[in-house]
Amino acid sequence: MNSEESTRYSDLEKNLVVKLENPTSDGIVREHVASHIVDWDGLEDPARPVNWPKKRKWLNVTSIAFLTFLTPLASSAVAPAEALVIESFHITSLSMASFVVSIYLVGFAVGPLVLGPLSEIYGRLRIYQACNAVFIVWNIACAVAPNIGSLLAFRLFAGIAGSCPLTLGAGSIADLFIPEERGAAMSIYSTGPLMGPVVGPIAGGYLAEVAGWRWIFWVISMAGGAVFAFSLVFQTESYEPVLLQRRVDQLRKATGDMTLRSKLAQNISARDNFIRSIVRPTKMLFLSPIVAIFSLYLGIIYGYLYLLFTTITSVFHTTYRFSQGAAGLTFLGIGVGSLVGLLIFGTISDRILIYLTKRNNGVREPEFRMPPLIPGSLFIPLGLFWYGWSAEKHLHWMMPIIGTGWVGFGMLATFLPIQTYLVDAFSEHAASVTASATVVRSLIGAFLPLAGPAMYARLGLGWGNSMLGFIALAMLPLPVVFY
């Protein structure tokens, strides 16, 4: 480097120091002049998302939580109206009725394969907002669908767009919070995939009864518009490589030095980065036993959830003579159980992590998220046995609802520790590992309900749900082994 060049970079470094001392500056970076590398100004740099003010972090979490609640809600909202949908299109197949719900989850399985990689190139925010807009468009299309084929196609595309918050949400939380603070944010985020599908049938049942099934999609579109407006105002980009690259672009423009580059930049083309990002979730799924096993575990739990969604309405409609709207209210059992699980396990998750870290001489391990999973997962088989046999024996209608409440409690107790563990274990690629888990659970959630009517017809509610409970019992040793 000649003396003139050295002087120019010295001046640039001084200017950057002035900017660092200027509290109004939003470009708080440190440039390693000799190597032309732009980096954050230390771990405590306030421009890093983990150092943002709490209000800014939680506005981002709130926006993501709204989305993560709405798009799973859309998956099950039409479940109580399945009979009305196939009747309006003159369809008689019960499997086709279940597929109206399941096809949306196929979209949940396809979307993460593309959306996760795109977010690691263009950032989280652009993908969130683009998918939200597309989600609204396809739900409007569902509301005006002229036949069953178009409805299924529109539901598939809506599901692909709706998979965005499920794919990126855990990565966004990893962007915003250090591991010791993630438990509360992850508990709120994890509630969406469980509570959204619970609230959906409650609202959908009454909407279909009062205004017709098409109004379910109109209301979802309106809610999507409200969430979209909120995100436009309050949500900001949180992915560090993209934020640091923006600073590089500003410095290049200011100095004319095109050799400056981000410390977080990868020395590959955007195309190669995209391909690598697409391959990464697949490699994680097939080459990491932990990712594969826990993704399968989540998939089985999610499959049970949607199996209940597609069968509970008919159980209470035929066995207990509930109306369409009242049958939707029976999903409150799962909802209340999930909320209680959220309050308990969301509260203790970070406390257990901090306690075990202190006992481990200050060394934090991702496995410290596992202890709540060990007792919590017992409640899923308990709830399935309770629900199945109380409905089989035609006990008071409150008894099977209590059973589904235990199922909801167990699902939250399972979902939250596994999701948080995977994010802590693979923080650098949180979006990719979440994509792997989302693909597996969505595929199982899409196709397991299709077997529900035949299974219950052959085995009955008692032994049918007992079989599911025995499978859940077989999964119990997993958290003990990995812990």
TrEMBL record:
The answer on whether this UniProt entry bears the keyword Zinc reads no
The membrane spanning regions, by residue number, are 58-79, 91-115, 127-146, 186-207, 213-234, 284-307, 327-349, 370-389, 395-418, 430-451, 463-482
Pfam families on file: MFS_1 (PF07690)
Provide the alphabetized UniProt keywords: Membrane, Transmembrane, Transmembrane helix
Q: Has the keyword Cell cycle been applied to this entry?
A: no
A cellular-component GO term for this protein? membrane
Topology within the bilayer: Multi-pass membrane protein
Q: What is its main location?
A: membrane
Major facilitator superfamily (MFS) profile domain: from which residue to which, for each copy? 60-483
Query: From which domain of life does this come?
Result: Eukaryota
Q: Which GO terms describe its molecular function?
A: transmembrane transporter activity
- Where can this protein be found? Membrane
Q: Which family does it belong to?
A: Belongs to the major facilitator superfamily.
Q: What is this protein called?
A: Major facilitator superfamily (MFS) profile domain-containing protein
